Amino acid sequence: MHIILRKLKFFIFFFFLNLNFNFFLHAHMRGIFSYEQDAAKRSLELGCEGTHKNQDKWLPCENEKELHKYLRK
What is the rounded distance in angstroms from the CA atom of residue 22 to the CA atom of residue 47? Predict the structure, then answer.
């Protein structure tokens, strides 16, 4: 019985971890653009200001923290 409970806890932990990861991945996919103009348009839709660059992609809002705040609304 102890082994079954331990496996169940393990399963539940990874199930919720996977849900959380998918939420953030989906949120990010809605906010990554190849062109700064597209990111600026999305900024207006989200209600934040400015854009920022992450590697070779453009993202709305002034920084990553602001972007996540507005994507969760």
Answer: 24
| β-bridge mates for residue 60, sequence order | 51
Residue with the two structure tokens 């992609």: 57
Q: Point out which residues pair with 59 in neighbouring strands.
A: 52
Is the overall model pTM greater than 0.70, yes or no? no
What CA–CA distance (Å, rounded) separates 46 from 34?
18
Long-range contacts from 20-24, C-beta under 8 angstroms, 24+ separation? 24/68
Q: Which of 43, 47, 42 is nearest to 73 (CA)?
A: 47
Chain segment 17-58, per-residue pLDDT in tens: 454 444 444 445 567 899 999 999 999 999 999 999 999 999
42 contacts: CB under 8 Å, gap ≥ 6? 31, 33, 60
